[in-house]
């Protein structure tokens, strides 16, 4: 069951075949989607890909932690992170809900 995930090259080949366009054009589309996703997430804090999910910019508050080697308590600073939330439709089609 442990198969390798698709590479960017394989995804682009799949796009090109399904849209019946040259691979070069599929690469441009794929790169443009990634660029728009990053730009919009930076600007508005989220980017939605309908049917798949959304990128969300989130802030993690400062907190206390422990150094695993010494056990010493340390302060972890506040930071901004990007999370991906899977859409319900995608989740239900990949992992059907229990009945």
Structural notes for this entry:
The chain is of the alpha+beta class. The chain folds into 2 domains: 37 residues; 55 residues, IHF-like DNA-binding proteins (HU Protein, Chain A), CATH 4.10.520.10. 41% of the residues lie in helices and 28% in strands. It has 3 helices and 5 strands. The strands form 2 sheets. It has a 3-stranded antiparallel β-sheet. It has a two-stranded antiparallel sheet with strand order 3-4. A hairpin with a 6-residue loop joins β3 and β4. α1 packs across α2. The protein is elongated, with a radius of gyration of 19 Å.
Work out the helix count.
3
Overall structural class, as computed from helix and strand content, comes to: alpha+beta
- Into which percent range does the helicity of residues fall? 40-55%
The residue ranges in which pLDDT falls below 50 over 5 or more consecutive positions are none
Biggest sheet: strand arrangement: 1-2-5
Question: Largest sheet, described in full?
Answer: 3 strands, antiparallel
Radius of gyration: 19 Å
Please, what is the average pLDDT? Answer: 93
CATH H-level superfamily of the largest domain: IHF-like DNA-binding proteins
Number of strands: 5
Main traits of this protein?
99 residues; alpha+beta; HU Protein, Chain A; 2 domains; 3-stranded antiparallel beta sheet; two-stranded antiparallel sheet; 3 helices; 28% strand
